[in-house]
């Protein structure tokens, strides 16, 4: 938040003012989480964008399910909203929509849910040249990129409950803000993926 604010304005003690604002915000404190524990598995940074993606489902949350796909290099996020419980067929359809825009990844990391481990989904990955990697059972932190974005989505949607917008517009706003916000390296996912600010 501080890095994003500094892109548009600057004043003395901007960081402290933002910290105080966040501390006094009731909505912000309601979605605050403890820092994540150190991951059990260290993933090497891919050479290219979209070489490795991390996927997971969020939900049911507010009556819907959300497919979350995160590029491991740029941290570019895609989110698809589902009105009903996901299955392999729906998941493959949604992934094909995403892959039509970004291309096929070399590696896809997921949990061991039956949606991702059944023969139909394995065949889908094999036919598209995607190597599947599964996280250690009972250790979701090994898929931290996807898990963190699941929690971020839920937190942001909670903060937007008073906004009278269709869910797809809420998700678009969340994605836009996330993609435009600088990461720890000072660059936003948009700068790292699209090579420009948005």
Structure description:
Residues 42-197 form the Integrase catalytic domain. This is RNA-directed DNA polymerase. Pfam families: Integrase_H2C2, rve. Its EC number is 2.7.7.49. Helix content is 44%, strand content 16%. By secondary structure, the chain is α/β, with parallel strands linked by helices. It has two domains: 1-29, no CATH class; 52-194, 2-Layer Sandwich (Nucleotidyltransferase, domain 5), CATH 3.30.420.10. The model has no long low-confidence stretch (mean pLDDT 87).
Number of continuous helical runs:
9
Helix content bin: 40-55%
CATH class call of the largest domain = Alpha Beta
CATH topology of the largest domain: Nucleotidyltransferase, domain 5
On the 0 to 100 scale, the average pLDDT is 87
Largest sheet: 5 strands, mixed
What structural class should be given to the helix and strand makeup? alpha/beta
Rg (C-alpha, Å): 18 Å
Q: Write down the secondary-structure element order.
A: HHHEEEHEHHEHHH
How many domains, as an integer?
2
Which second-level CATH architecture of the largest domain applies? Answer: 2-Layer Sandwich
Q: Find the CATH superfamily of the largest domain.
A: Ribonuclease H-like superfamily/Ribonuclease H
User: What coarse outline follows from CA principal-axis ratios?
Assistant: globular
Tell me the number of strands: 5
Task: Tell me the distance between the termini.
Answer: 15 Å
């Amino acid at each position: 938040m501080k890095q994003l604010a500094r892109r548009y304005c600057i004043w003395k003690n901007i960081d402290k003012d933002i910290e105080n604002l966040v501390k006094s915000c009731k909505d912000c404190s309601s979605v605050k989480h403890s820092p994540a524990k150190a991951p059990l598995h260290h993933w090497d940074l891919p050479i290219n964008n979209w070489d490795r993606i991390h996927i997971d489902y969020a939900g049911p949350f507010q009556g819907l399910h959300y497919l979350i796909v995160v590029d491991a290099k740029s941290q570019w996020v895609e989110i698809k909203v589902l009105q009903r419980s996901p299955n392999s067929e729906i998941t493959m359809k949604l992934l094909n929509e995403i892959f039509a825009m970004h291309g096929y990844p070399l590696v896809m990391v997921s949990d061991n849910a039956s949606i991702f481990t059944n023969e139909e989904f394995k065949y889908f990955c094999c036919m598209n040249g995607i190597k599947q990697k599964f996280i250690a059972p009972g250790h979701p932190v090994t898929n931290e990129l996807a898990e963190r974005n699941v929690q971020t989505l839920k937190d942001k949607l909670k903060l937007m409950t008073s906004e009278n917008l269709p869910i797809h517009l809420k998700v678009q706003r969340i994605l836009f803000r996330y993609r435009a916000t600088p990461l720890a390296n000072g660059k936003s996912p948009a700068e790292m993926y699209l090579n420009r600010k948005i």
